Amino acid sequence: MAMIKKKDSTIKRKQGGLITMPFIFGNEVGEKLAVVGFNTNMISYLTGQLHLPMTKAANTLTNFGGTGALTPLLGAFIADAFAGRFWTIAIASLLLQIGMISLTVSAILPSLRPPPCKAGGSVRCEEADSGQLAFLYASLLLSALGSGGYRPCIVSFGADQFDESDPRQKVTTWKFFNWYYFCMGASILVANTVIIYIQENVGWGWGLGVPTFAMAVSVVAFVAGYPMYRKLDPAGSPFTRLLQVCVAAYWKRKLSFSSDTRALYENETLDAAISVGGKLVHTENMKFLDKAAVVTENDDPKAPDPWRLSSVHRVEELKTLIRMAPIWAAGIITITAAAQQNTFSLMQARSLDRRLGPKFVIPPASMSVLTQASMLATIVFYDRVFVPATRRLTGLDRGITFLARIGIGFGVSLLATLAAGFVEVRRKEAAAAHGLTDDGAAAIPMSVFWLAPQYCLHGAAETFTSIGHLEFFYDQAPESMRSTAPALFWLSISAGSYLSTLLITVVHRYSAGRDGSNWLPDDNLNKGRLEYVYWLITLLQFINLIYYIICAQMYTYKPLQVKELGDQEREREHGVELVENA
């Protein structure tokens, strides 16, 4: 028996680890080239190829971004409840592949686009008809569904390759998030340079065909790594368990609650599949939910009805998600601020002098290269300089907690939108000085690199905010919901995108004057008040930062009793408090 156990242990060690990273990161590169290569320059495609008005194009972009960020909830549910993360990623990648092929076809066939603009006394452009838009939206929906299955699972699947019960791999698990984001940023950098250059200078057929081919190669490579992966079995629908706790608590809402928490229902056998890494122990807040774990004379503890009786672990799963909600909500307004990079910041760039040397002209969408370069540089700085320096002060392995990391990102993002407003004032002054206020199509003799501060600050903010949120969701979410946890991150992106759509729509409607003036005019940004929009978002971010600081101070980390460690050991660097089982 000892020899058999030793052999099984050896086989287990061969799965997972660093050897799987090329396959996982390769799939990430393909997905980002496919999705970002189109999304970043999408407003140029909508306005230049489909001839949509600027505001309508901006709202279409944010609506699609919101929908694409909402679908990860479905993907996470499928992965955690039925299919597991590997098969969810594989099938979702195929859906994304089909969507990208469809988008490429729409860019190649003239019948799927309106005719070119006609020159004359004034340039006349025919807007895309309903059939052409329907084909585009169907392609985008397929891509969104594919991304929805892929995005929440790839991060957790990569982290799954490192066994947290092994002290040697535990630190590697948390460094993985930095590696993942660095790899993602590098692929986005390529998408924002090479792919966008092809779109602007060679054609949209090639500009979409190249990332479509890259996506196909990455899917094959990911599936080829199947024997090497460490694959965790799905533990059943997390949403069903959460609903069962709510229903059980409702049925027992009139019960008198005893102060003796030791009487609450525990069943380690029942919870074995959802508490492999450790058991959640009872906390004192939200006691109304504890009634779901009260055993009555109508309950059978040996064969409990989950709709009538829940274990403490399951009750605490719900409590943990509720405690995470305020931190999650704080990220929405930051996404709204960042969303302007692909809409109005891009339109600002289009109006400025983009020459780099005597012949090369920077595509407007490629300005986001500054965001990615700043993000990559900040990740290196954070990992090599910031963490070692702060570690000596705080004693934490990661230098600072993920809550502090998120807060720093919120502050940097606020500075980015504040700077964007001042740059817009300077841009309009330059337009007025050269008599171009009434000509929204003419290039203003002002360097496009005036926009560099806002792009670079957004990149630095993303290093702190986005990676901090990924760490927070993966660490604090119940173990059985680690696909659902990244889906919460994408859900905040969805909410931020929809909030951007609402904000732009409201501003466009209520800032309209009787003389035709508007903060966000459809055809000439030089006559607008875009700086007011940036400063409005800055104000919202300031209020949000105060709200976040209050929430972070009040946040209670999930109480986890880890099976492999002694009850007295505490891993504060992971933000986990180990509580003794009374």
Q: Secondary-structure blueprint of this entry?
A:
Blueprint: H1 2-14, H2 21-39, H3 42-48, H4 54-70, H5 72-83, H6 85-108, H7 130-160, H8 167-201, H9 204-224, H10 238-251, E1 278-280, H11 287-290, H12 312-330, H13 332-339, H14 344-351, E2 352-353, E3 355-356, E4 360-361, H15 369-394, H16 402-433, E5 444-447, H17 452-476, H18 484-510, H19 530-554, E6 560-562
Parallel strand pairs: 2-5
Antiparallel strand pairs: 1-6, 3-4
Q: How would you characterize the overall build of this protein?
A:
There is one protein chain. The chain is mainly alpha-helical and 582 residues long. The chain has one domain: Growth Hormone, Chain: A, CATH 1.20.1250. It has helices spanning 2-14, 21-39, 42-48, 54-70, 72-83, 85-108, 130-160, 167-201, 204-224, 238-251, 287-290, 312-330, 332-339, 344-351, 369-394, 402-433, 452-476, 484-510, 530-554; strands spanning 278-280, 352-353, 355-356, 360-361, 444-447, 560-562. The strands form three sheets. Strands 1-6 form a two-stranded antiparallel ribbon. Helix 7 runs antiparallel to helix 18. Mean pLDDT is 81; it is low at 1-13 and 564-582.
